[in-house]
Write a structure and sequence with these properties.
The chain is of the alpha/beta class. It folds into 3 domains: about 90 residues, NAD(P)-binding Rossmann-like Domain (Rossmann fold, 3-Layer(aba) Sandwich); about 210 residues, Mur-like, catalytic domain (UDP-N-acetylmuramoyl-L-alanine:D-glutamate ligase); about 150 residues, Mur ligase, C-terminal domain (Protein-Tyrosine Phosphatase, Chain A, Alpha-Beta Complex). Helix content is about 30%, strand content about 25%. It has 14 helices and 23 strands. The protein has a 10-stranded mixed β-sheet with strand order 8-7-9-6-12-13-14-15-16-17, sandwiched between helices. The protein has a 6-stranded mixed β-sheet with strand order 18-19-23-20-21-22, with helices on both faces. The chain has a 5-stranded parallel β-sheet with strand order 3-2-1-4-5, sandwiched between helices. Strand 20, helix 11 and strand 21 form a beta-alpha-beta unit. The chain starts with 5 loop residues before the first strand and ends with a helix.
Length: about 475
């Protein structure tokens, strides 16, 4: 290849691609990009970094490019892809480019699993940063400590969220196979991504390939209490350390309790006292995430004191138990939960942290899997801890055959049979119009969706404000 000066990104407005564009720009490359829909917040974030993306796809956008990075949702029929192939311009997928330009021969700490990846990645990156290790990082969500979802860093370590979703039209394997893990965290393995995986065995096969990448002198931190994780971890050639609440866990949490909008717990390492910790995040699932970080940080040479101090200054992730606003002592919260396990754990965490509040769960089935009937029964069990549940119409349901769609009417009927007060309200506007007059001081409304849900949070806060006494 000729020297690379100008890099063009097709579908630059995706979260990962936008972050990669920023990293490349900060590294001194001339960066351009294009996307079908260019609008805030990504267009604003890119513009702040000196990148003004083209709206729409046109072969002319590739003029002068030395390298093209192709997003995973881009088809071979895209006009810019067709021009790229015709002109013979070198190209990479997003994970290939991330590995080539920013991982290289650095010590990659890769966080993989169905649940908890984003929080665990952000927390680990922050702990290393706070300890002065200056890591690089690529995170699948907006980390408040970094005011973004990446950092370049010049240190030995780079922390990467490892996604099992496919890579590009020319590489249907999972993204995390490109990330060269030397330390890896495996949080959980469940069925997800029903648009590309047909069954759990296919997902397990991907995770086995991931674990196979860890060198013999590397480390795998594997969550206890998950039989599928245990079976995959057993295939590893490297050292394996488990973490969880089990007596046999290498890293074990005990004396776990909620405390001031967070969790306090004590940790044992191989049965010996290691330290007392406090994390400003709710839920036993977040204690699990913290245990994985403690194990990885200890492996990197940090002390318990380093980790304790960093935990105390962790500011969390947007869209993870994020309080959007409070009106008349009614809390409106946003959460990314869209898998039955994530919903169940989120509701358990909120009940633990806000035991006296009536808990409303507002759920939009939006992801490729949640819109399908794959979890029809599991969803009915996931909402048991909610006091009131509202299920919205599945996003873009018309794109799925009737036989594959989640049946929300049946789901609500099943919830009511289980003693959970539930209703179907199709749209964000209908939900706001219906529930705003019913909400009372002391209620907590947790909106769960993997997308924007038509701005429901701001609409609900506005409606509550208009109902407030003058």
């Amino acid at each position: 290849m000729n020297p690379i000066r100008h890099i063009h990104l097709i579908a630059v407005c995706g979260t990962g691609m936008g972050s990669l564009a920023g990293m490349l720009k900060a590294s001194g490359f001339h960066v351009t990009g294009s996307d079908r829909n260019v609008y805030p917040p990504m267009s604003t974030l890119l513009a702040a970094q000196g990148i003004v993306p083209y709206s729409g796809f046109d072969p002319a956008h590739l003029d002068g490019a030395d390298l093209v990075v192709v997003g995973n949702a881009v088809a071979k029929t895209n006009p810019e892809v067709a021009a790229m192939l015709e002109r013979g311009i070198p190209y990479r997928s997003f994970p290939q480019a991330l590995a080539e330009f920013f991982i290289g021969d650095r010590h990659a700490m890769v966080v993989a699993g169905t649940h908890g990846k984003t929080t665990t990645t952000a927390l680990l990156a922050w702990v290393l940063t706070a300890a002065g290790r200056d890591p690089g990082a690529m995170i699948g969500g907006w980390a408040r400590n970094f005011e973004g979802n990446y950092r370049l860093g010049k240190g030995e370590y780079v922390v990467v969220e490892g996604d099992e979703y496919d890579t590009a039209f020319f590489d249907k394997g999972p993204k995390f196979l490109h990330y060269r893990p030397r330390t890896a965290i495996l949080t959980s393995i469940e069925f997800d991504h029903g648009d590309i995986y047909g069954h759990l065995d296919q997902i397990v096969a991907s995770f086995i390939k991931f674990v196979d990448l860890i060198p013999r002198d590397g480390l795998l931190l594997a969550a206890d209490g998950d039989a599928t994780v245990a079976s995959v971890a057993a295939r590893a050639a490297c050292r394996v350390e488990t973490y969880g609440f089990e007596a046999i866990s290498h890293w074990r949490a005990e004396a776990v309790r909620p405390e001031a909008a967070g969790m306090a717990f004590e940790v044992r390492k191989r049965g010996d006292p290691y330290g007392a910790f406090r994390l400003p995040l709710l839920g036993r699932h977040n204690v699990m995430n913290a245990l994985a970080v403690i194990g990885a940080a200890d492996h990197a040479g940090l002390t318990p004191r380093d980790i304790v101090e960093a935990f105390g200054r962790f500011e969390g992730i947007k869209r993870r138990q994020e309080i959007i606003g409070t009106v008349r002592d009614i809390i409106v919260m946003d959460d990314f939960a869209h898998h039955p396990t994530a919903i169940r754990e989120t509701l358990a965490a909120l009940k633990m942290g806000y035991p006296s509040r009536q808990l409303w769960a507002i759920f939009e089935p939006r992801s490729a899997t949640s819109r399908r009937n794959t979890f029809q029964t599991a969803f009915a069990e996931a909402f048991d801890l909610a006091d009131r549940v509202v299920i919205a119409k599945p996003f873009a349901a018309e794109k799925l055959p009737d036989a594959e769609r989640l049946d929300v009417a049946r789901l609500v009927a099943d919830l009511n049979r289980r003693g959970v007060h539930a209703a179907v309200l199709a749209t964000a506007d209908e939900i706001v119009r219906t529930i705003a007059p019913q909400l009372a001081p002391g209620d907590l409304v947790c909106v769960m969706s993997s997308g924007g849900f038509d701005g429901i949070h701001s609409k609900l806060l506005s409606a509550l404000s208009s109902l407030a006494p003058a």
